[in-house]
Amino acid sequence: MSSPTVDTDAEWVAAAYAAHGRELYRFALRSLGDSGLAEEAVQTTYLRAWRAAARFDESLGSMRTWLFAIERNVVVDMARARSARPSLADAAVAEHGSDRWPASESDVDRMLVAWQVEEALRRLSADHRSALIEIYFRSRSYEEVALEFGIPTGTVKSRVYYALKALRLALEELGWNGDE
Question: pTM of this prediction?
Answer without folding.
Answer: 0.49
